[in-house]
Amino acid sequence: MIGSLAVIWAIGRKDLLLEIRNKDVVVAVTGFALLVLVIFTFAIDLNQGNAKLVGSGVLWAGIAFAGVTGLNRAFALEVEGNTLEALMLAPISRDLIYLGKALGNFLFIGVAQIIVIPVFAVLFNLVVFRWEMLAISLLTTLGFSAVGTLFAAVSVRIRAREVMLPLLFLPVVAPLLMAAVESTSHLVNGRSWSDMSQWLQLAIAFDLAFLVVSAFIFQYILED
Fold first, then answer.
1. Which of 205, 188, 199 is nearest to 133 (CA)?
2. Model pTM above 0.85
3. pLDDT tens digit sequence for 102-149
4. pLDDT single digits (tens) 196-223
5. Distance CA 73, CA 153 (A)
6. Rounded distance, CA 95 to CA 93, Å?
7. I need a labelling partner for 126 at 20 to 30 A (CA). Which of 50, 169, 180, 219 fits?
8. Is 10 in contact with 100 (CB distance < 8 Å)?
9. Taking the chain, what is the end-to-end CA distance rounded to the nearest angstrom?
10. What count of other Cβ atoms lies within 10 Å of the Cβ of residue 33?
């Protein structure tokens, strides 16, 4: 168990460090998400009522669309560096490779959210710094990573992968996005855990299902 966790952490940490050192994708992802927030801030006549009504949708739409840019890099770096075959030949199970890549995506999207969510709170003048928001963010990011890593592996050798990944990814994560938007809407309107419990349960069920299914399917995708 400890050895498996070490492998997962090594892969995830390596991917995150490469992106942070490169900086281009980190800036692009956070910049795109922030741009979405700023555009909607000027496009909508914001007041407290409008902010609470549309704010959660704007936040998660920006994070979802920006996150696709980062997810594309999960295996693109391996292809560009001609290291994908070496990773496949490593004496570790394929599900550990999947979990390591998913961890890297999780950390990457999490870093972007640390920047985006405070800016969202300021622009929309909403209180989001509560434990409920941490739970929503973690569950949503986990689901994004689970689905995005699988589809990044599917599309990595496709020439138009920048187009194919969003087409595959966004429809599948629609239930998770819905849960995130509804939960955040309850949060900014000052409601309790019990009011958002059904949406959090949906997010948990989605995450567990896709983690298990994706880890199983992943080994066959790499072989193809």
1. 188
2. yes
3. 898 898 888 888 888 888 888 888 888 888 899 999 999 999 999 988
4. 889 999 999 999 999 989 888 887 776 6
5. 10
6. 6
7. 169
8. yes
9. 28
10. 26
